[in-house]
Recover the amino acids of this structure.
């Protein structure tokens, strides 16, 4: 079970071990960017958004988003200056317009597939801040809004460039409100995995990709062509996303026999998430077709099930997905069998 020593709602996309590697192996500018990002991340992980922070109006129409895109103008003040709100035309600022588009795609996915109206299910306003910090190599959810850096331009592009990154951060808000998974150890890795699962589902839904057509890569388009890698994570083959002199080699395991025990990264939340990620990939590809029609709803049912505890481990969540599959599709259904087999294949169930 997860420890209670980390309970912050703040969750960042970039694994700390990647930034730490850059801080020791990059050129002088990249080292500085990585260290500055790590410093900012340490601060936001220790505090949540102020409950007194004034918020713009939520949506008044069910199923219609209320998006507000701000610019921090390379400072670290949130939310920043309002650049675009719901219904406004393009600003001409690529990051702002991408954030607006991808938040819309994510909202549309949750509404059309699960009839969930925004993060809280009640039309919560979607706040996104772009141009956060100077060459900031991360994106995060702080308990109230999504925040995106511009990247350093050498290793990482702007963090709004990838739809699944935006969807990943918005999903942290959904996870927070539904399960409140402690951001540490196996519960924290589940938190990260669920953000990846729904991130890839949003991407597949938006581009109408079947499980066979999807590349199952998280953060594709985030890496520049100077990096020897495809993305930050591979759900199909954890540990294969990148192998680069500066970034190092992707350390994600895809099986419990390779589970990484570490005190860093809140107990390896960005590392061990590869195991439940692969379980979802195996279940979805076994069933075929569109992942949001079978595997996705099973995972969503488990996320929103009151039996999911804040400190649930992999095995508890796995059993819950099997139970949810049986409830939705039947005890002996191919869906239930596929889900159980997926968890067995990654060594979580036996």
């Amino acid at each position: 079970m997860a420890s209670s020593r980390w309970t912050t709602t703040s969750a960042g996309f970039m694994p700390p071990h990647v930034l730490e590697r850059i801080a020791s192996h990059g050129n002088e500018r990249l080292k500085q960017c990585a260290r500055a990002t790590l410093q900012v991340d340490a601060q936001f992980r220790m505090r949540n958004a102020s409950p007194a922070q004034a918020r713009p109006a939520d949506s008044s129409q069910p199923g219609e988003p209320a998006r507000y895109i701000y610019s921090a103008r390379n400072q670290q003040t949130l939310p920043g200056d309002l650049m675009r709100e719901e219904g406004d035309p393009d600003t001409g600022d690529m990051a702002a317009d991408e954030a607006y588009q991808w938040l819309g795609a994510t909202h549309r996915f949750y509404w059309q597939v699960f009839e969930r109206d925004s993060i809280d299910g009640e039309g919560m306003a979607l706040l996104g801040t772009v141009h956060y910090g100077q060459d900031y190599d991360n994106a995060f959810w702080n308990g109230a809004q999504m925040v995106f850096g511009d990247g350093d331009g050498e290793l990482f592009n702007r963090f709004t460039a990838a739809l699944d990154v935006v969807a990943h951060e918005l999903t942290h808000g959904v996870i927070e409100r539904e399960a409140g998974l402690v951001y540490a150890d196996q519960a924290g890795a589940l938190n990260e995995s669920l953000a990846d699962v729904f991130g890839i589902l949003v991407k597949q839904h938006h581009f109408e990709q079947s499980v066979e057509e999807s590349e199952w890569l998280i953060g594709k388009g985030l890496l520049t062509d100077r990096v020897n890698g495809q993305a930050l994570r591979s759900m199909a083959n954890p540990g294969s996303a990148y192998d680069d002199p500066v970034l190092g080699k992707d350390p994600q395991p895809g099986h419990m026999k390779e589970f990484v025990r570490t005190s860093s990264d809140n107990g390896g939340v960005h590392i061990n998430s590869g195991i439940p990620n692969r379980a979802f990939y195996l279940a979805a590809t076994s069933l075929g077709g569109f992942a949001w029609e079978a595997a996705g709803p099973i995972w969503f049912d488990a996320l929103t099930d009151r039996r999911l505890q804040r400190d649930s481990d992999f095995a508890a969540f796995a059993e819950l997905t099997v139970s949810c599959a049986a409830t939705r599709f039947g005890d002996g259904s191919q869906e239930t069998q596929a889900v159980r087999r997926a968890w067995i294949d990654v060594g979580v169930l036996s």
Q: What stands out?
A: The chain has two domains: 11-178, 185-345.
